[in-house]
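Sample entry (361 residues):
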Amino acid sequence: MKRAFGPALVALFAGLTASSLALGQSPATGGPSPSPPGATVYFIGLEDGATIGPKTTIHFGLHGMGIAPAGENKANSGHHHLLIDTDLPPLDEPIPSDDNHLHFGAGQTEVDLELSPGPHTLQLLLGDKGHIPHSPPVMSARIHVTVADAAPAPAPAHAAQPQPETGRHPSSPGAKVYIISPADGANVPVTLTVRFGLTNMSIAPAGVDKPNSGHHHLLIDTPLPPFDEPIPSDDNHLHFGAGQTEGTITLTPGKHTLQLLMGDGNHLPHDPPVFSQPITVTAGVVVQSDSPPRKAAQKPALRKEGARQPRRRRAPVEGQAPGPAPAAPPADPGINDFRQCPAGTHSQSFPNPNGFRCVPD
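Predicted structure, serialized as tokens:
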């Protein structure tokens, strides 16, 4: 990678005193756009010290904020910048745009990165509509990677199937949306984070009419809706209209299906529609211990309220009066409630601040 240092050197020698201050530690606060408490940006599936191929897809994760393209004035949102082999720039000025500061002003959440073999550093820094970091700045940890002379792993291939639909926003050729995690068939906790992947399209919040862009919708335990109507918004159709690239959901224990569907600024699927393959997960599975297996005791049958259970009497010892019969085993409640709900109720997945609601058994 090459960088043009001519203008920078002229400015440096013209104001050596001021520049010496700027070359010190970057200010602790960023620009005028505030970031919400707890907002984080991070690399998905890429750890410090990893070895990657000469061309690798790098996925960006964002928590607690939404994605908005550059120039879009939307609260609690921004767009990604990838810093390569460089320190943080001044955090109260626009982020530079060069070989070491890559901008993703269209709202992209990943990049096919080509680097020369050898060691490199990578860091994510979120910028507002004017490419200025937020206050406080939202940045990832600076990680070290080694680029090896080897073929990269293939990207997930969940292609959208063309449909004979018209009258909607066209999708980009080869656009794909897919679930990064969890994996198909995974055992997951009842509360989990689902991470979204997108290629050949960019993220734009709901209400923003921008070509080749859209926002995610997560379908839970439901088939694809009609493509010529707005995507419903209910317990089974979760909207991420702020441009989120992940979502924390709460499921009831048992098997569930998850699927992503892209929608335009009006929540209408594109033409052709861009959707992922559905995956199946099992929520709330109890992990068995490694102790030796024991003979399973016969499970008592469920009893109706007020019904009597048959008693098993022990044969009396010769010469000893029979004692009282043992108490009947308790009835199986029938519901394995993983959330704190009052007696007589159980938890049910619901998109409120708690992620669930209590409903009668």
